[in-house]
# Entry
Amino acid sequence: MKPIHIVEGRAVPLERSDVDTDQIIPSDWLKRVERTGFGRGLFSEWRDDPSFVLNEERYVGANILVAGPRFGTGSSREHAVWALMDYGFEAIIAPSFGDIFRNNSSKQGLVIVQLTHEDVDELTMVVKEDTTRLVIVDVDLMKVEVPEAGWQRPFNLDPMIRERLLNGWDDIGLTMRRETAITKYEEVTVTPTLEGIFDSQGQVLQR
# Structure
């Protein structure tokens, strides 16, 4: 996972609430064994509709998704995060998120930004007024900004999640930070053994 300090680009407004992980990536796509290629399945049932927002040419290439409340609820499938990132999204902005989805996102490097319902509505309007406007998600300063529109809002991040993103730490990276301590522990720890407990026949020795 690469360090993430700032995500900037264009945004696409997904004006839907209660978008669960099955809608993000339908179950038919879970048969894949690779972790790539899921972008083609993102919102696949909705993308059959020509009027669906991701099918609009003006939003092609957008890397920030502005969604409604309770985004990412439902099952714990990591595939939802994989699909969003494989499609090209680097940050999701919404009033609220599913807890497991939020946790999965932090481990993969997908930036989750929670703003108030009113702020998300305002940002949606700002984006729709001019889809070419640059949106900046600053992880370091914890703020969302649309400089051209003079719009800016702060957001909160769990300190550990912020550190994960800024340093590019996935679960393995966090473990490797303790490599020295782990090595020292292994050097002095006696490996458990069953010697002296069973005889050659597998019977418990009498004591």
Summary: Helices lie at 21-24, 44-47, 79-87, 99-108, 117-129, 159-167, 171-176, 179-188. The domain at 6-170 is CATH 3.20.19.10 (Aconitase; domain 4). The chain has one domain: 6-170.
